[in-house]
Specification:
The complex is a heterodimer. Chain A has no helices and 9 strands. By secondary structure, chain A is mainly β. The radius of gyration of chain A is 14 Å and the shape is globular. By secondary structure, chain B is mostly beta strands. The longest helix of chain B is centred in the C-terminal third of the chain and has 4 residues. Classes of the chains: A mainly beta, B mainly beta. The interface between A and B is medium-sized, with 25 and 30 residues.
Chain lengths: 113, 118
């Protein structure tokens, strides 16, 4: 399973764009990249998932370079409610035989007023 | 549609005791995964159940066992509790990607059960 490395913490101000980068140098050909958000005392919540290039949804964008050894989660115009821990996960999501999901330590984002 | 539900919310046990935690998956989901999350750390994968069988397992001792019922609900059992088992236990449900009807695979997490071992 590919190991991921993220910054431990980041600070931002309301209204700014936040970019969190995740390194996954050993990503395998069949691996996808997924980001989750977690608030205190709650379960993680799915944000976005991608395989290559750029993926965008109503919440965030995910940028994946051609070598796929890293990825960047972009949160546009953050608000105080975006203060949370963000996890980057890498793995093959297509199997029906079950697969492990490995969370790293995550990035603690603190948004200030 | 109720999402993933877990019971109980909180639990206090004594070292050496046994505990059973329960999870009901999101409606229509057939795969259940369990995670242990210690304070300040990311969730650690315990195991995953699909079609009532344990399909994948993380690095947890045999004291951790589980079960999935025909209605897809699941139980996590922990025997001979240790102080280090104190954590938030999370359950997540999902569908295989080819059945999800979407282009992505998503796990839906419950609120967790906070287990304290004294």
């Amino acid at each position: 399973l590919a190991k991921t490395t993220q910054p431990i913490s980041m600070d931002s101000y309301e209204g700014q764009e936040v970019n969190i980068t995740c390194s996954h140098n050993n990503i395998a050909t069949n691996d996808y990249i997924t980001w989750y958000q977690q608030f205190p005392s709650q379960g993680p919540r799915f944000i976005i998932q991608g395989y290559k290039t750029k993926v965008t949804n109503e919440v965030a964008s995910l940028f994946i370079p051609a070598d796929r050894k890293s990825s960047t989660l972009s949160l546009p115009r953050v608000s105080l409610s975006d203060t949370a821990v963000y996890y980057c996960l890498v793995g093959d999501i297509r199997g029906t035989g079950g697969f492990k999901t490995i969370f790293g330590a995550g990035t603690r984002l603190f948004v200030k007023a | 549609d109720a999402g993933v539900t877990q019971s109980p919310t909180h639990l206090i046990k004594t070292r050496g005791q046994q505990v059973t935690l329960r999870c009901s998956p999101k409606s229509g989901h057939d795969t259940v995964s369990w995670y242990q999350q210690a304070l300040g750390q990311g969730p650690q994968f315990i195991f995953q159940y699909y079609e009532e069988e344990e399909r994948q397992r993380g690095n947890f001792p045999d004291r951790f066992s589980g079960h999935q019922f025909p209605n897809y609900s699941s139980e996590l059992n922990v025997n001979a509790l240790l102080l280090g088992d104190s954590a938030l236990y999370l359950c997540a449900s999902s569908l295989p990607l080819h059945m999800s009807g979407t282009a992505y695979y998503e796990q839906y997490f419950g609120p967790g059960t906070r287990l304290t071992v004294t």
